[in-house]
Design a protein that fits this description.
The complex is a heterotrimer of chains A (197), B (247) and C (507). Chain A is an alpha/beta fold and 197 residues long. Chain A is 21% helix and 21% strand. Classes of the chains: A alpha/beta (197), B alpha/beta (247), C alpha/beta (507).
Chain lengths: 197, 247, 507
């Protein structure tokens, strides 16, 4: 359909708006960033419907185990936690639908919005972010950035083919504004601050 | 300072007391005020409907009537907005430019030009809900709007605060349009009336005894809805309160 | 079927429901009431929005819920705005970035194409909806696709995509809950962000009972949502292709971004191995710095939540997968040349103008009888069909709230007024309005004629001058009392009481 390509570009050139419209310089708006971003991250995460697990210094993975309260397969995508399942080269995207809990590590977090960034590198199979019923996420507190401007300075955007900010669990309010978690994606999302080894 | 008074058509017809109060109020400040008797309208009904060509002669007449004044003052922000921002059906001559830039809504004239700091004669011991016409609010910027992140301000409230005994009633949707909308009120009557009823309900809930505004047009619509609903609310133009009306 | 309740909702005193798209306080319709349907469409005849709006208002429970729900979104938006010191600066930036990009749109489109292609995305160009549909069908046929899952896209609504695919035996499954409700009810979305916001829970229960076999007497939102999840999931898992729209397209990195709250775009894109994205050519922005501005503004403006639950960035197909982007013009390049109306191309489809619009909240989005409803619809729809949508720019009081909530600062209410001028200039105005305004213009241009037209007789039926009442019925008086006419006009009073000045003021 190269005919349409040329026709569209030609029409755009013909109809271009007049005047010099310089590209604005976007500031980072991060002068007010607190030194410790954990607190703001927690507040934002909870606002988005996520939960922060209480760390246990003696047994770092105990909070993860305690968060698993429903029966069903647990998929681990992290070396720190032994689940029932692992992603293998044979794993198909649809296989993840059987998973009750997936344990993942986020590439980084965003304090402004309580967002967690995942790319295919952390997800292994992209559907591990959405097809499980519940997510438990490890986040290195050193990998929290203040706001979205800072977030888009990160290297992930030009390295990954797929990257997602997940901010709380799947949510809908399409029926009379009633909040329901787990419309299509995960029903709950818990985060444990845990430095990367 | 020579001031020309513009009394919008519906004020002339239905609310002469608003015109009188505006005139008397301006005279209290020692201004020489004249009302050109051959005036009709600002042209808004036609412009508002998109019929710019049909507005041209009315606009010409407006300029002929008012070009000789230093300021043109009117108790209507909506008409002021028409003159200042939308009077474009006629050629932009020097006279047109003069009239368009010198036309002021009463409140902004008192607040910004005369910089009035007292109304010693005014006393209004009632609970009052303030209504801002949308053109006056968002195009003339007579007050801050809830849509924007800006420092709160309100010129009409600043003036009303100088009136003895007045008490303000807060609306839950202070900036919500009441549904008058000029010719909208007749062309889209169903939605217009529903918006008016909702506005009246909000005013009632606020515990207001009076509603005031610097625009009679919105209040004419609201009052029409209130009467039909049997709502016990009174509507009074801000010019009357500032001029010393007691009720 | 049991639904998993979030604890906020199990606490009867909870009022903190304000994340995602949820309302900040519980709203619940009290009665069941038949759902009013949208505007009556008769071929190319001008849509009568007010007729449909009146039916919506007559359905009092629907109107009240719709108004309360959308006003709540507006208030949540305000709250977010107050939490961001640089809010107005962000709006300026967003507007500036969009205007800059539109001024070099050919450059940025080619840059995106180059970068996306380098990352393995196949980029297609479609001049209109028909070509878009044909391109997608061709991709699907080559892969033998029978079932397609898709996330919400206003562009595919523009293209009549669902109906086209149905005619070509491809099953399309909408995965956004609201959009799925609308699909199952064979109704268009009524709002760009919350497509089923005009429906009560009982309406949804009725639709689901008929289509997915839920209990017709259970109108609990959790139950209904859960039923839909259970019914849709097998379809998602068995689909051979996924389709999404795109909220933003980043030229410099070849990335397109999709924002959802349900995660359904991610499911649609990542579950099957074939992902097709349909994207309007105006969605381009230059770089990632710019993207930050829009992601910060989008959900805050739309729903009053800091970000959508999912913000997904696609830069290339996954291993073994296939990714296509169809860049669609469908009138956009022509709009770019419309001096008064090109700014509508800055729109990011957040729906804030709809939420704040007092007319939209009382009318319901389907009353507009067009793909785009509300303020943004009034200025976009006539570019698609000037005759059919000629009445829409009159469905506004020109109050300007829309312009001031718009995150990209589109001068919406000014464009609505400009459309009225343009339409009247092109003869696309209803005869009633035309005749009435011609008469008004003549009367108001002459002080003598004007004074003579006033209701001096004060007879009961002639309270308003004729130019205000030239209509089949006196619409003013249906639901409003007519103002009492005083004994004398101001003009008469002045002539009597300021005789001397009256002489001086003669022109």
């Amino acid at each position: 359909m190269s005919g349409s390509r040329e026709a569209i570009l030609e029409a755009i050139r013909k109809n271009h708006i007049q005047g010099d419209r310089a590209r604005p310089n976007v500031p980072l708006f991060d002068q007010a960033a607190p030194a410790d971003l954990k607190e703001l991250f927690q507040k934002s995460l909870e606002r988005m419907g996520g939960k922060l697990l209480t760390p246990d210094a003696a047994d770092p993975m105990a909070p993860v185990r305690q968060a698993i309260v429903k029966a069903g397969p647990v998929l681990s995508c992290v070396p720190e936690f032994e689940g029932d399942m692992k992603v293998t080269p044979q794993t198909k995207p649809t296989d993840i639908a059987l998973v009750e809990y997936a344990v993942l590590r986020a590439a980084f977090g965003v304090a402004e919005t309580g967002s967690l960034c995942f790319t295919e590198k952390q997800l292994l199979v992209n559907t591990t972010g959405f097809l499980p019923q519940h997510l438990i996420i490890l986040l290195d507190p050193a990998q929290i950035v203040y706001n979205l401007h800072n977030a888009y300075q990160r290297p992930e955007w030009t390295q990954a083919h797929y990257a997602v900010f997940q901010s709380g669990p799947s949510a809908t309010a399409d029926i009379e504004g009633v909040l329901v978690h787990g419309a299509q994606g995960v029903r709950s999302l818990s985060v444990l601050f845990h430095p990367a080894s | 300072m020579k001031v020309g008074l513009f009394v919008p058509c519906y004020v002339d017809m239905f609310h002469p007391e608003t015109g009188i109060a505006t005139l008397e109020l301006l005279e209290r400040f020692g201004l020489s005020v004249e009302y050109p008797v051959d005036q009709t309208c600002c042209g808004q009904p036609m412009t508002n409907t998109g019929c710019e060509r049909e507005a041209a002669k009315t606009e010409e007449l407006f300029v002929r009537n008012f070009e000789k004044y230093d300021y043109i003052v009117t108790p209507s922000g909506s008409c002021t907005n028409q003159v200042r921002h939308n009077m474009t059906a006629i050629e932009e001559s020097d006279a047109v430019k003069h009239v368009r830039s010198r036309t002021y809504e009463l409140v902004e004239f008192l607040h910004d030009v005369l910089k009035v700091d007292a109304f010693p004669w005014a006393e209004f011991p009632h609970r009052v809900a303030l209504h801002n016409n949308c053109n006056t609010l968002r195009n003339l910027r007579i007050a801050s709007m809830t849509e924007r992140r800006e420092e709160p301000f309100s010129k009409p409230k600043a003036l009303l605060k100088m009136v003895k005994g007045i008490e303000f009633a807060d609306l839950t949707r202070p900036d919500e349009c009441c549904g008058f909308g000029g010719t909208f009120s007749v062309f889209e009557e169903g939605v217009s009336a529903k918006m008016g009823q909702d506005k009246v309900t909000d005013q009632l809930k606020s515990g207001a005894e009076y509603v005031t505004s610097s625009d009679s047009s919105c209040m004419m619509h609201q009052e029409g809805c209130a009467r039909r609903m049997g709502a016990n609310l009174k509507y009074i133009h801000i010019a009357q309160i500032l001029n010393g009306a007691r009720a | 079927m049991t639904a998993e309740l979030h604890e906020e909702l199990t606490d009867p005193n909870a009022d903190q429901l304000d994340h995602g798209a949820a309302s900040s306080r519980p709203l619940k319709s009290r009665i069941s009431e038949p759902q009013p349907r949208g505007a009556k469409v008769h071929g190319n005849r001008p849509i009568d929005q007010s007729e449909a709006a009146n039916r919506f208002i007559a359905a009092t429970e629907h109107e009240a819920m719709h108004d309360a729900r959308l006003w709540d979104l507006r208030q949540k938006r305000d709250k977010e705005m107050h939490g961001i010191e640089e809010w107005e600066e962000l709006r300026d930036l967003a507007s500036g970035i969009k205007e800059h990009t539109l001024s070099k749109l050919d450059y940025y489109l080619e840059l995106f194409e180059k970068n996306a292609t380098a990352n393995g995305i196949k980029v297609h160009w479609a001049k209109d909806g028909a070509e878009h549909n044909a391109i997608v069908l061709d991709i699907l046929r080559k892969k033998g696709v029978e079932r397609l899952i898709k996330s919400k896209s206003m562009l595919t609504e523009e293209c009549g995509f669902r109906h086209f695919m149905a005619e070509n035996n491809v099953e399309v499954i909408e995965t956004d809950l609201g959009e799925r409700i609308q699909q199952l009810d064979d109704e268009a979305p009524s709002h760009v962000v919350v497509p089923a916001v005009h429906k009560l829970r009982t309406d949804v229960a009725g639709v689901f009972a008929k289509t997915i076999g839920s209990d017709p007497d259970n109108a609990d939102a959790h139950y209904l949502t859960e039923c839909q999840r259970e019914a849709t999931r097998p379809l998602i898992l068995s689909a051979q292709a996924g389709m999404t729209g795109g909220n933003f397209v980043v030229a410099e990195t070849g990335t397109f971004v999709v924002c959802t709250n349900e995660g359904n775009a991610d499911l649609s894109a990542n579950t099957p191995s074939l992902h097709i994205a349909s994207i309007g050519i105006e969605k381009l922005i230059p770089g990632l710095d710019d993207l930050a501005v829009f992601v910060r503004l989008l959900s805050r403006s739309a729903l009053g939540s800091p970000i959508t639950q999912y913000t997904s960035h696609f830069r290339g197909p996954r291993e073994g997968g296939e990714m296509h982007v169809v860049l669609v013009d469908n009138g956009r390049s022509e709009r770019l040349g419309m001096e008064k109306f090109w700014r509508g191309l800055k729109c990011i489809r957040c729906g804030a103008c709809m939420n704040t619009c007092p007319v939209f909240r009382r009318s319901g989005g389907l009353s507009y009888g067009a793909t785009y409803a509300g303020p943004i619809g009034l200025i976009i729809d006539p570019t698609f069909n000037v005759h059919k949508y000629r009445n829409l720019p009159y469905s506004s009081t020109l109050n300007g709230s829309c312009t001031n909530v718009c995150p990209v600062k589109i001068n919406i209410h000014e464009q609505i007024a400009d459309w009225r001028k343009t339409l009247a200039g092109e003869g696309e105005i209803s005869p009633v309005k035309k005749v009435m305004m011609k008469a008004a213009g003549e009367v108001l241009a002459s002080p003598v004629v004007y004074r003579a037209s006033l209701p001096l007789g004060r007879s009961a039926l002639r309270h308003l001058p004729h130019f205000m009442l030239y209509n089949k019925l006196n619409t003013w008086g249906r639901k409003r009392d007519i103002p009492e006419t005083p004994k004398q006009t101001f003009n008469e009073w002045y002539r009597k009481n300021r005789k001397q000045q009256a002489e001086g003021g003669k022109s």
